[in-house]
Amino acid sequence: MRVFFHTFGCKANQYDTERMRQEAEARGARTTSDRSGADVVVVNTCTVTNQADAEARRFIRRVHRERPTTRIVVAGCSAALKADEYRAMLGVSQVIPGHDPLQVAGALSPAVPVQIALRAPLDRIDNESIGGELLRARRGAARGWLKIQDGCDRKCSFCATRLARGVSRSRDPVAVVEEARLLAEHHAELVVTGIHIGHYGVDLDPTWTLSRLVELLLERVPNVRFRLGSVEATEVDDRLVELLASSEGRLAPHLHMPLQSGADPVLRRMRRWHSREEYRRRTLEIAERVAPLGLGADVITGFPGETEEDHAATRALIEELPFTYLHVFPFSPRSDTVAADLPNSVLQRIAGDRSRDLRDLAQAKGRDYKSSRVGGPAAVVVERGGTALTGDYLRVTVPPGVEPEPQPPRRGDGAPMAAVPFTRQSLRSGTLRGDGDDLYIAWPIESSVISA
Known about the structure:
This protein is about 35% helix and about 20% strand. The protein is an alpha/beta fold and about 450 residues long. It folds into three domains: about 110 residues, Rossmann fold; about 230 residues, tm_1862 like domain (pyruvate-formate lyase- activating enzyme, Alpha-Beta Horseshoe), CATH 3.80.30.20; about 70 residues, no CATH class. It has a five-stranded parallel sheet with strand order 2-1-3-4-5, sandwiched between helices. Helix 8 links the parallel strand 9 and strand 10. It is globular, with a radius of gyration of 22 Å. The chain starts with a strand and ends in a 10-residue tail after the last strand. The C terminus is likely disordered.
C-alpha cells in the first residue's frame, strides 16, 4: 500500500505527520512522494484560520477529481472540529478527529492488524499521553522537530487550536531526551515545538519548566543545535535567557514570541494575559542580553473593536522593538470561539490594509537587520534548494557549486567546541555576505567566532 502524506499548518502538525508516517511504515505501508501513484492520501489539516480550512477542502477535492479511486483519510485540527463536514466530502473514506498516529495507521489498513515489535524499552511509553513510539527522523529534512507537549490551557478568545488540541499535556523528559538523541543522528538542528511550550512541565509530577528541559537537552544531546519554537514573552524566564546568551550557539539565538496586538484594549478583548508594557519590557530585557537575536512575532489586525488608535499603538510598538520578521494576519473569526461573537467588527478591507502596513514595516526592519549582519560569522544548517538557515533565523543563499569544508564551530577564543562533535549533518561555519535584500553564506569562515 502506497501512502502520500500532505500537511497543513504548524511545526506541531508537521511533527504529527512524521509520527503518522512512521507508524504506517511500521505496519507495512510504503510512503510515496508521488501523489498520483498513491493508494491512500492522508491529509493532516489545520484550523488556525478560515483560509486553512478552505485550503484543506480544496486539496481534498483536487485529489478526488484527479484520481477518484484514491482513498482519502483526513486528520488534524480541522478534522477534530469539523469531522462531519469532511465525512460528507466525496472521496473521504475516514476521518480521524485529531492527530493520533495509531488511529491514522489503523485507518490505512484496518482489516490487517499488525503487532509492532518494540526495538528498545523507551520506544513506546505506555503512560505517555501524547507520545507513543519515539520519532526517529523527519524524512528528507536537514532540521528535525522535537515535540515536547501538546494542547493549551490558555483561553485566548480568537483561538480554535486549543479547542482541537485539548488541555496541555507534557511529555516525560526522559522520552524527550531519548527522542532528541535519535533525531540528532539525522539532523543538525532540532526545533523544540508544541502548542504551548512555555507551559511545559506544569502538569508533570514533580513539575518541570521549559528552561530546565532545554538545559537537560543541551547537556545530554551535545551534537546538535536546538531552537525554540513559538514561546510567550512572559514565559521566557531568566534561566532561558541565560542559555540563549551563554550556550555559544547551541541554543539558537532566536525567539518567536506571539504579540497579537500592541494595544491594551485589544489585548483584553483577545483575553491575552500580558499587557503591552509587559511584552515591551521583557522583549527589551532579552534583546539587551542576547545579540545577535532573531526576533519574530504573530500579529492579528482588524480584531473586533480595533480602532485606528489601537493600530497606531501596535505599529509604534513594532517600530520600537527589534523584530527581524513578523507573521501578520487579518482577523479570521473561528466557530465556537468567544471572538466570533464580539461586536464592532472591522471591515475586511480595513483589516487587510492594516496587515499590509505592518508587513511592509516588518520587511523594512528585516532588511535593516540583514544589512547589519553582513560581514559577520554564522553557523548554518544547509537545506535543500541552495539555502541555509542561520542561528538567528536568517534564510540565506548558498552560492551554487560551492561545497563547504566541514569544520566544527569554534568558541570566542578560537578553540574548537569539543562538546559539539562534527557529524555528517553538522552545522557549517561561514561569513555572511551580500546585502539586506540578498544575503548569502561564504566559505570558509573569515572569523573565529560563531555567534549565530
